[in-house]
Amino acid sequence: MQMGSILEEYILDTIRKGQRDDGRSFNAYRDISIKSSPLQNTEGSADVLIGNTRVLAGIKIALDEPMSDKPEDGNIITSAELLPIASEKFEPGPPTPEAIELARVIDRGIRAANMIDTKSLFIEKGKVWSVFIDIYVLNYDGNMFDAGTIAAASALFSTRLPKLEGEDVIREGNLERLKPSNLVTSCTFGKIADKILLDMTAPEEMFSKARLTIANDENVVRAMQKGLGGSFSTSELDQMIDLSFEKGKEVRNIIKKATGE
C-alpha cells in the first residue's frame, strides 16, 4: 500500500511538472513496431509492440451461416484474451470485463469504418464466410486498445480469403487477399492531474481518472469509448479529436509500410 502511494505521488508530481517518466511529451506515442504475418496457421496475423505492450492478432475465416436479419452478409466476430503471462493482474478463466471491453472497442471501430465489406463474404444462399478476429495480449504496459486495433487492422491487411470447392474449404495455394475497404486506427487518451495524455503506460493507467478511445479513418471519427469515472470538458474533447486525426495518420502510415499497402 505504501509503495502504491509513493508511485502515485511520483507519477502525479511528474505530470504536474509537464513531464512523463519516459521523457515523452503528453501528445506522443511510444515506439510502434509491427511484424506482419508471424503466424502460419491463420488466414492473417500481426504482432504489434507499442513500447513494451505487445499484442498479437490472428484472423481465421470459417464457412458459416448468415445472421437471420442479414442473409446476404458475412459475419465478424472479435474476441480478446488477456493472457496471464502478460501481467500478474491477468488470470486464466472466462473472459473478464476488461477483455470483453477490449474486444468490443476494437470491433466497433472496424465495423463503424466499414473496414470489412460483409457483403463480399456472401457465397450463396445460406452460406457465408465468418471472419474471426482473435486478440491476444502477450505483454501489458498500458494502452491495449490502440495496440489491439493496430494489430487487428494490420492482420486484416495480410489476410487471404479461402476458397470453397464443393464442400471443401481450400486454405492453400493461390488465394485472393481479403482487401479491406478502409483502414481504421484508434487513439486512447487518459486524464491525470487535469492533464491529457496519449498512450498511457501501465503506471499512468493506474492513476488515470478518465479514459477516451477515439477510432477514426482519414476523414471521419468512427467510434468513441469512454472509460473510468472521470470526465472531459468540451474543449478537451475537441483537442483529443484533433490530435487523433494527426496521430492516426502517423499510425496508418506505419501500418501501410509494415503490410506493404
Q: Which features would summarize this protein structure in a list?
A:
261 residues, alpha+beta, Ribosomal Protein S5, domain 2, six-stranded mixed beta sheet, four-stranded antiparallel beta sheet, 12 strands
How is the CATH topology named? Ribosomal Protein S5, domain 2
Helix share of residues? 25-40%
Separation, N- and C-terminal Cα atoms: 49 Å
Reported CATH architecture = 2-Layer Sandwich
Order of helices and strands: HEEEEHEEHEEEEHEEH
Largest sheet at a glance?
6 strands, mixed
The low-pLDDT segments are none
State mean pLDDT (0 to 100 scale): 92
Global outline: elongated
Radius of gyration: 19 Å
CATH superfamily: GHMP Kinase, N-terminal domain
Query: What is the level 1 CATH name?
Result: Alpha Beta
Strand content: 25-35%
Number of helices: 5
Number of strand segments: 12
Overall SS class? alpha+beta
Number of domains: 1
What does this structure look like?
The protein is α+β, with helices and mostly antiparallel strands. Strands 1, 2, 3, 4, 5 and 6 form a six-stranded mixed sheet that branches. It is elongated, with a radius of gyration of 19 Å. The chain contains five helices and twelve strands. Helix content is 29%, strand content 31%. The mean pLDDT is 92. A hairpin with a 4-residue loop joins strand 11 and strand 12. It has a single domain, classed as 2-Layer Sandwich (Ribosomal Protein S5, domain 2), CATH 3.30.230.70.
Question: Which secondary structure elements does this structure contain, and how are they paired or packed?
Answer:
Blueprint: H1 2-16, E1 32-36, E2 44-50, E3 53-64, E4 75-82, H2 97-112, E5 122-124, E6 127-139, H3 144-157, E7 163-165, E8 168-170, E9 185-192, E10 195-198, H4 202-206, E11 210-216, E12 221-227, H5 234-259
Parallel strand pairs: 4-6
Antiparallel strand pairs: 1-2, 2-3, 3-6, 5-6, 7-8, 9-10, 9-11, 11-12
Helix pairs in contact: 2-3, 3-5
